[in-house]
Structure formats: C-alpha cells, structure tokens
Amino acid sequence: MQFDLRSNSATKLFISCTRLIRGEPHPGTLDLYQMVFDPSNPNPNNFCLGGNDAYARVYDIRKCWQDRSSSLVKPVNTFRPAHLIYPHHFMITGLAYSNSGELLVSYSDELIYLFQKHMGLCPPLFQPEDMEEVDKPAQFVGHRNGNTCKVNLFGPNNEYVLSGSYCGHIFIWKKNGGELVRVMTGDSLDVYDILPHPHNQVIATCGSENNLKLWAPVANDDASPLPDDIAEIMESNRQARIDSYMPFFASENHYQRTRGQSNGDTTSEER
Known about the structure:
Helices cover 16% and strands 32% of the residues. By secondary structure, it is of the alpha+beta class. 31% of the residues are buried.
C-alpha cells in the first residue's frame, strides 16, 4: 500500500509477493514484515521488502504503477546470502538502507548482513551454483534474532550497525569491519526494535517490557564497552540459533532421503 497524505485512502501498488524457493516462484504469498526506501537517490523510487523467506526484494515504484493490474510485479533486484540454501526457513525481520544505498538485512535465527549494490542477484532467478560467483556480504555476529528483531544504522555517516537481541542486550558494531564495540543491557528478556534519532546522538529501544527507553552518551560513563561475560553471551546466542533451526534441518534431511529412495536413488539429494 502507498499512502498519500493529501488523500483519505491508500493506493494498492500490487496484489501480492510470491515466495521464492531456490530462486524459483513458489505457490503461496509472502508475509511482509518491513519496507524501506533507498535514500541514496535524490528522488527515491526503489524500495525493499522483507518477509518470511530469505530474499530481500527491491522494487521500482514506477514499475509498480505500470504493472499494478498484474497479479505479479517482478522485483528489479533481490539479495540473499549464498549459504541460505533453504531460504523458506530463514525470514527477514529487519531492513535498513544506508545513505549510500547499502542494504542491511537481519534474519531470524541467523546473522545480520550488509549488501553492497553490486551484490544483488539480478536477474533474481539465480541457480545455487551461480551464487558462488556473488561477492559475500559483510556480517555482524553475536546477537540472537528470534523472529522479531529490527536493525538500523547510526552515526552521521552511518558508521555503526545497531540491533536488539533475544538475550536482552543492545549490540553495536562498526559498519566497516564488523567489530563489536558496545553491548548494553536493554531489557530483562528481549530487545525487539531499535531506532536512532535522525539528527541527535540518541537511540530509542523497546522490548518485552512495557516501556520505551532512550539512550544518549554521557561524559562520566565509566562502564566497560563490553560486559565481562560477553564471550558467554555470544556463545549462548549462537547455541540458541543452532537449537532453533536444527529440528528443521533434521526433518528436511529426512524428506530428502525419502525423496531420493522413492526415485530409486540410495543417496540423499544434493542440498
């Protein structure tokens, strides 16, 4: 939907997004969780959608207007990490664009990735072997995104990557290099959303508690940038990610073995 503030109603850009499995359209529509516009163009026309598969889809709003009567509007580009071979398990819960058009993507029970513009899978229907030819995005490690965490960029030149975590902490990395530079306790259980002020050095967060927290630097902050138990926090988050998706891969491997045997093949189908 697109809302014109001068109008009393919304405009439907297109009917639905189709899920992609190994780059191919799959029956069923996509649940959408976030939409962001690319600010690198003075007249931004491109926007990105993320939902319950691993593909971040970029659309040109002008093409949506041209094709809005069609049941399927094709994206102009898509992004996903090459190793997410089963993209229907990992869903996108957070998206953010930098001022230069880099795309930041947060996946449930996976990591955060920063895609440069040239890393798109254009045309989007790439086969798995083609994915090895695509440059790998930068990644940000240490947090845990269960299924709702948002992601954002911070600083006058988007120097930092921000995310909440299901361990109750706020994570801050350097965008260039991915170094973890700050971890703060943000909630008793989970931190879901994190949003920087557009002009001031202030961050807003919310989570499982019934409040909104504002964060700002102070001159007499003697706290360590990283907690003493940061290694244990990161390991606990890593193990929680593994525990979450291992049952899925066990059932998937069983399916692949059964499918191979039914086709007269004694080996599992290549993943």
